[in-house]
């Protein structure tokens, strides 16, 4: 029997927490199909961590699909409402900040999903990407423009460090668009589902901070050439030598290079980082390097 997803009483939604809740469970179909694509009939019930369950529309769909669900909710009022609405031995509701959640404690093969708050969506994606191999697959509902950047390829106007930092740790696929009217209250922009199949980082974890530094430098000022972009973080002689080693024209711009190109440059520049002050790594570093939290 399909789980009920229309509920009566509810707590007040808090604008400061970015609470835009889906109206109905049928909207979650693209997310569910991606998330459970590898779950066969003989498999154990999947273990799913849902981030920001709110009123439980997606939670109900997960339970109906047979999943065991750990729901992480920041708002204690909505957490208590969820417990009473969807009482189930397969549901555990934890109150807390997902940015402080210990992903090492979840079992290997965990699936992650959620309708993420716009303000911290990319920060959450960054945490989840770093949870491999505990986390195997993830699917999120995010601001459409963020999904555009997560899925962008070389030459796309949205292509940048956020694209590469995400695709370095996961295969990324857009799953569908969701219009503002599908939410309560409706946001001012479109949203989109995105699917992530996590995989090992392309370099040893000890080398990833320098790779992330290189990507931040490459896209900090998009109109600059690689030579001029990299000299803010690496010595000019080292940059010139690295570009010659990999055979790239110093006048090349970052948006024309693919993942393998940046990996080759990272290896060539290994050990030549300058004295630039350390910045946050991963997606957070990509956002900070632009001075614009909405467009890395």
What is the typical, i.e. mean, pLDDT?
Answer: 85
CATH architecture call of the largest domain: 3-Layer(aba) Sandwich
Give the overall shape: elongated
Quickly give the structural class.
Answer: alpha/beta
Q: Figure out the total of helices.
A: 11
Q: What fraction strand?
A: 15-25%
CATH superfamily of the largest domain: Vaccinia Virus protein VP39
Strand tally is 9
How would a crystallographer describe the biggest sheet? 7 strands, mixed
Provide a brief overview of the structure.
With 296 residues, the protein is of the alpha/beta class.
Could you characterize the architecture of this molecule?
With 296 residues, the chain is α/β, with parallel strands linked by helices. 32% of the residues lie in helices and 18% in strands. β5, α4 (121-129) and β6 (135-143) form a beta-alpha-beta unit. α6 packs antiparallel against α11 (282-288). 42% of the residues are buried.
Q: How is this fold's topology laid out?
A:
Layout: E1 21-22, H1 29-35, E2 47-51, H2 57-64, E3 68-73, H3 76-85, E4 91-95, E5 110-115, H4 121-129, E6 135-143, H5 144-150, H6 161-167, E7 170-178, E8 183-184, E9 191-198, H7 208-219, H8 226-230, H9 236-246, H10 259-269, H11 282-288
Helix pairs in contact: 6-11, 7-10, 9-10
Looking at this protein, list some descriptive labels.
single chain; Rossmann fold; Helicase, Ruva Protein, domain 3; 2 domains; 11 helices; 18% strand; elongated
